[in-house]
Amino acid sequence: MEESESLAMFVEELCRPVRLSFQKKAPLFGLESLRFALSTDTFDYSAPENCGFCVPLEASFYGGSQNESCLPDGLLDLSQCRSLPMVASNPHFFEAAPEVKKLFPRTVRKTRDREVITVDVEPKSGTVLRMNKRLQYNVLFQNFPDVPSFSVMRSGVYPMFWVNETYSIGDANLQTLKEDLFSPVATWKLVCYIAGVGLGGLFIVLSLLAGLCTILRSRKESRRIHITSASAPTSSRVVPSSEGASPTLRNRRH
């Protein structure tokens, strides 16, 4: 798994697939881990891939025209999927349009790590170490001026509750994963170490033997030359001298 990659998953509660992008490195359980978070454009209706999820409103909300506009960014209409006037969003309307948050000025501001869907993945094996599926469920409320109980409330989306479904790899699976990751590496390092030391020692021994053979061969050649010189046969012959002189005996080495 690389940082440049993204994860795709289908979220049943949203009735749609979503994409998660790399956020940061987040070591977990003593292992390397890459954290992927829900893409910031998931509820952005200006993105071409989200045009099919822009459900025309049956009434005027947030200044939008009836049957012509959809909910503001950050909200997902679930009425076509759940047959109820329900709307999904990130918890605390995180990354929702300003007009949505305007109804709730005291909304808690948190970080993406705690407000969106996140998945922590071990990069070598692609194993999911932990996942947090965070969603908020809201109701779409319309103001009815003629009904006293509802006349004081403004039309818009009102939160009901938010959930955080967490998955974490079990101890047994975590131990198996660590063995699969570390045992081959440790074995390979040991084999490389032994092979390196063994080959190094072998090269040293071969070098010593080659040097010793060269020295012995050199000494043997030197001794052979010396013996040959010392044992070479000689012959004598009489060389006549000039008149009146005695003949001279000369030795000649063969």
UniProtKB/TrEMBL annotation:
Annotated stretches, region: Disordered: 234-254
Cited Pfam families: CD36
InterPro entries xref list: CD36_fam
A single GO molecular function term of this UniProt record: scavenger receptor activity
Transmembrane segments: 193-216
Record keywords, A-Z: Glycoprotein, Membrane, Transmembrane, Transmembrane helix
The keyword Glycoprotein is annotated on this UniProt entry: yes
Intracellular or extracellular location(s): Membrane
GO cellular component: cytoplasm; membrane
Family: Belongs to the CD36 family.
Protein name as it appears in the record: Protein croquemort
